[in-house]
Each structure stands twice: as structure tokens, then as C-alpha cells.
Amino acid sequence: MENRYDILFQPVRIGPVLAPNRFYQVPHCNGLGYRMPRALAAMRGIKAEGGWGVVCTEEVEIHHSSDLMPNLEGRLWGDRDIAPLQMMVEAVHQHGTLAGIELTHSGHHAPNLYSRVPPLGPRSMGVSGYHPWQTRRMDKEDIRNLRRWHRDAALRAKRAGFDIIYCYAGHNFCLAMHFLLRRYNDRSDEYGGSLENRVRLLRELIEDTKEAVGDTSAVAVRLAVDELIGEDGITHQGEGHDIVAMLAELPDLWDVNISDWPNDSVTSRFEKEGYQEPYIAFVKTLTSKPVVGVGRYTSPESMVTAIQRGVMDFIGAARPSIADPFLPQKIKQGRTEDIRECIGCNICVTGDLLSVPIRCTQNPTMGEEWRRDWHPEIITPTKEPKEVLVVGGGPSGLECARALGQRGYSVVLVEARKELGGRVALEANLPGLSEWRRVIDWRLTQIQEMDQVSVYPASPMSAKDVQETAYAHVVIATGALWGRDGVGRTHWRPIPGYDLPAIFTPDDILADRLPMGQVLVYDDDHYYMGGLIAELLSSRGCVVTMVTPAPLVSYWTQYTLEQERIQRRLMAKGVTLFTQHSLTSIQPDRLTLSHTISNFETSLPYDAVVLVGARAPNDELYLALKPALEKKIISTLRVIGDAEAPTIIAQAVFSGYLAATEFDKTSSEGTPFRIEYVEV
Ligand code: ADP
Ligand code: SF4
Fold it and tell me: What's the average model confidence in pLDDT over 365-378?
């Protein structure tokens, strides 16, 4: 029978290779890199198993002069780096999927902290990341060397078995792009000046790669066609267009996006599905070669129309493939309601930026495929289907109940409120966060299909209630509440005046108890909440001042690539910002701020203060039940999620899944996961 999504499953030729379908996992970083090759191979292999037609590496450094340490990316500096990458290729090939590799020389983006050789650039220029050193201006010999390193890396990639080999000119992360950009390239030789000259290096890299490996491997180009900075950069109507026109038929595939990374991987708070289409749609009008685009597509309808409208040939995805490695298979099997849709929070990105293994809010198994043997679709069934009571229906309780149900346990999930979802149900009402509701929706959809899981909303439980149910196995997922006293990341004692009447917490705001007039939002939490409350209150007519002890507003959102957008939005709304200031006291009519370095004091009038500080675990129920465990009235008792230790949603979901997998395990010595030791 004809399926309306059939078009997505058509094979597509890419030069000498054939992709089995149109699902294309574009290169994406993951914090595993060269350091954890087994974990990396298993993670990529799972995506191939889930039906992605092409699965690519992250950026892979071609030479030690492109050393991105402390970030953990791929490496192909020499022959010894082939075997680890081969593991990934084999894992991917096992499922009939093509393996792609993104070869990169990072130019001034690579600080070379490990290799200690001078970074390279089209001219002498500062390296990224405020490091106090500069690149060496590349001479002709350097350019010849670069071409040789790239060619050698392509040959190694071919030996590793890669089907698609990239020349990378995207994200402002690579030399080929640095040469393209007028603002970096001031050369007067044949590699600078006219666009023709600035494109020369990229053209040569493509030609070299085709000549070296093009007989068996496809040669792809990843190009940023717009940087969203106007005429100072590449634009899709200007040089982005002209570069594609010049090189149109040279590569076997065009993988096009907008730059830099915060634009390419913009969060759902700022852009919705398909946001890149207006920038990339021109590419297919200039080339007969297949085109890959991204735009956080999770809806098969949007994917089909993107192909039918001629915007792209492949649905490229990083985040949707992380949140649901089995997305293609679910579409193929007509199980679209089972797709675990990405919520666009960028917690996955934090893994790379903090140089730790990737994690995902929606998919707790991401990054854990090898070290814990976790699989996004399969979980070990229980041999002894016991009955379990889960108290609290936030992300951790929902995930724990779902995963226990999947394992075959009989689960009763009780939730105090009428609505399931805990903090997510409330936070999804904040400006821009509506997609976060998918954390609840996916879990409830799965649970509704399980006879063995019953859900009882509007059922607050006391310790006595729990004991009266006579459940022998109890999981407590009762969450956390925002503190009222101003204790946060930098204040360890309550802020004097915190108990005055005009003091609010995020829980008040989430419950729609809003202040009015001149409101000071004091953010000593540093993730999204303070900035979102400032944005919300400003939209509701308050005159908002936001104060934070950190040097940037919403400091931690640097790791989710959102910080600049958040600050820009707050500034556009007229929010007054005080960074590096502590709130030291609140008097009835004024409050006092102190500069964190100089201690210089500022006094401000106010009508209300919102204190965004630490959260207190709501572990009363757990503590009240512990004696019952000790007296063996209850056989097992576990506290998870925010009730155990207040955390981000991703970690609460992980905690729920972990508790479900460990339910019938006896604890053992050592780490509960495999470690990739360095062989000596
Ligand atoms: P987490 O992120 O750990 O899942 P949340 O705060 O999002 O935590 O969710 C905790 C949920 O537990 C909330 O929906 C809350 O209403 C519920 N809850 C808290 N205490 C009880 C209780 N005693 N009985 C039932 N539900 C409770
Ligand atoms: Fe999507 Fe968030 Fe998962 Fe990243 S962490 S894939 S943005 S749900």
C-alpha cells in the first residue's frame, strides 16, 4: 500500500554511493570524540539501526595544527587514528547505512593547547575564545601542506571505510571558511581579494579529495550560506549564493546551513521547525547534486513537503536523531505517535562544550549505549513482574513509570496535581518553551498504551497514604521547590529582608502570581529561569531590572548556545541589566546591590523582588518513609530526580530511567558503567 511518507524512503545517489533513504544524520559533536571511540561507535551504530540512511562523524581534525583540545572531537592526525574510526564505520555499515566523515582544519578556531604549534590563518589574527595568542599567516608552503594533510586524511578516511568524505566550510570553524570571509582574508595573492580567489582553497580541497578518493567515496561540501550578520559576512542573496553558483557541480553533495553554531542549532525558544528553509532554498536551483538541509525536523509531514517543494533532497538532522535515533523506522512503520520529538533545549550541545559525553533531555540513553548497554527502544524485561508505586508525575516520575512499565512491572503513578508533568507542565507556559511539553506528551502517550501502568492525578500522598497502599516497592519523585530566602550559587546565607511581603519566587510566577510595578529579578541560578521571568514580566508591563552576580546574564546558557540571544532580547525589551552584582539586603522601600569585585554599593527603589536562587528538594515524603524501609514494612524505597538532588530536566529524566533499569539489580562494587581506559 502506498504510504504518504514513501518519498522519504527513496534511495538517493550521492556520486559513487547510494543512500538507502533520505534520512541523513549530519555531522554533530558529542563530547565523546577520539577519547571514547567505543561509546562513539555504539551511539552512531544505534542511529543506523534506527533507520538513518547516512550517519556522519563530528568534525574530525586532520592534523595536530588543528587541535581543538580541551574539546573532544574526532581525530585523523595519523594512521593510528584509523582503527577507532573504523569501529564507527563498521557499526554503521552493519545496518546498510552510509558512513560520512567531516574532515576539518580548524584554522584560528583551534587554539592548539595540546600540540603547542602556532594556529594557522589566512592572516595573523587572534584565535577564537579570547586566548591571548594569534595565528601564523599562512604562506604558499603552508597552503600546500594544508592540501596535503587534507588529502592524506581523505585517504585514511577511505581506508577506514567512509562512504562520504566532507570538505568543511561551515560554522566559522574551519580554514576553508576563514579563507572565504572578507573580514578575515586580507590576502593580496591568488587566495585573497576577489570571491573567485577566496573560493580557491575550498575548490582545491574539493578537487584534491575527489582526485584522491572520489572513485569510491562521495565528496561532500558543508557550506554556511548565511551568517546572519549582513554584508560583513556571507549572505544567501550575496556571496553564499555566488559560492554555490561557482562550485555547483563540483562536489557530489551539498550540505548547507546557516552559521555560526548558535544560528545553526538555535533553540526552540527562538526558532521553530524548518527555520533554515528561507536561507537554503536557493541551493537546489543552482545544482543538480543532492542537497542536505537541517531545521530540527521532527514532523514527517514537514519533511515530505520540504522534499516536495524542492528545498532539499535529504532531511538532515542532528538533534532529532539524538532525541530519537529510531525516528526513520517509526515513520516507516507508521508509528509516528511514537516519535520522541526533540524539544530544542540544546542540552545535547552542553556535552560538547563542557567536554563530557553527550546527553539528551528526551532520550536518556543517548551517550550511554556502550558504557551502560542502553538502547533507546529496548530495555531488559523483568523476570519478576512486581508492583511498584511511583509518587510524583514530573519528568523523573513519568520516565521511571514508563520505563518500569516497559520492563513489565505493574506500576501505579500518583500525582498530587490535576495535570501530569511536574515542573515541565508549568515551565512550558513560559515564553518560547511550549515545545518542552513534548517531554510529558511522549511519556503519557507511551504510558497510555501500557495496561500495566495506571496513572492517578489529583492524588497527593502522605507517608501514611503510601503505607496504606501496602506497596512493597516505592519510588519517590516529588521534585523540588524554589527557595524563598535568596540562598543561591553565591549566597550561602539568607538575604536580609527576604521575608518582606513583596518577595516572589519562580514558583509564584509559574503559578501566575505575578508582581507589578518596578520589579527586580535577582538571578543566582544562572540557567534560563531568571532571564525568562525578566522577559515575561517585562511583557506584562513591569519595569524590570535583572541583577546577577555572574559576568553574563543567564550565564550557563552559554553552553546551550542561547546566552547572546537571551541578553539581546532582554535589552530589546528595555530590561536594565546589572551583572557582577549581588543583592545584599532588601529594606521595605529600597534594596542594596553590591558589586562582586569592588563591593561598591548601589541603592534602588522597588515594588517587588523575584529571588531566583537554589531549589530545595521536596524529600519530606522520602524521609518520612525511610523508617518503614528500615522496619521492612516497605521492601525497596528510592528517591529520584529533583527530590534527590535538584537538577536540570535532562538529569531528572535520566534519573527516572536509571532507577527503572536498576530496579532489580543488586548493587555491586565499582562504577555502574564501563570506562574506556587508555591502552598502555
Ligand atoms: P522531577 O523533575 O524530579 O520530576 P518535578 O518537580 O517536575 O520533579 O515533579 C514532581 C511532581 O511530584 C510534581 O508534579 C508534584 O506535584 C508531585 N508531588 C510532589 N509531592 C507529592 C506527593 N506527596 N504526592 C503526589 N505527588 C507529589
Ligand atoms: Fe533535542 Fe534537547 Fe535532546 Fe538536544 S538535548 S536532542 S535539543 S531534546
Answer: 98
